[in-house]
Amino acid sequence: MLLSLKAPALARALCLGGGLVLSSMLLTQQATAAECVKTFRWTEDPPYTYAAAEAPGGVSGISTDIVRTVLMRMGCEIRYVDMPWARALSALKSGHVDIVSGAFDTPERRTFAHYTSQGDTSPNVIFVRAGDDQAAAWKTFADLLDSDHFLGGQIGVNYGPEYQQAREEGVLEGRLTLVPNRVLLWQMLDRDRVDAIAASYLTGLMEISTLGFQGRIVRTSIELSSDPAYIIFSKASVDAAFVERFNDFHEAYLRSEHFQEMVDSHAKAFGVLE
What global pTM score does this model have? Predict the structure, then answer.
């Protein structure tokens, strides 16, 4: 039996059908967005990642804002998980964390992580207590190794090839103290429990200011590495196609005026820029 519709009825039917199709498309888009939830590792590491009650999810920082902005433009949500560096790499490898920022490019990490096409450069340097005349004359990492100074660093962090080589060759045996977080390192340096620590230059300046150690802790001339640090993705939970899309949005954001304004705002918040 054929059903015949007059023009008004046909129009209503088409509108109803179109509405159903449109509703179906919207539901599909919403479902896709809901499915795109990426877990981002953070810890107290200003200006890159740090707690801020007024920020979305209570987390702010340069790296945080980059990842959050790019994911938002991709139609994805972000979930934050706070954990120390060494555990974060293990979680990334297993797929329990999707995204980690601030990673150097190493062959071993390439086995379990995708890398963004562009990185951020802030050299790792050596900081000491003010008034350390011996350290004031240092020019290279070899000068520190030839001294009787004890060095502090973070567990699982690669500060550069010279540092890694010294560890592998046992040169720092008995003279290196590793802890989970840098706040403890600054406190240890201030209290004479270690004589020098390695840290990112920009991060170091901000944390010294925040902790009230200005004038008591200073940087030396030693630069351990100026290699870029990257945002990396778990190969166990994120496919290469997603990373390619992320790269497109990421590169566009890095070229925008909004990116530089964001970086400057974080630097000013910690007193690095006036």
Answer: 0.64
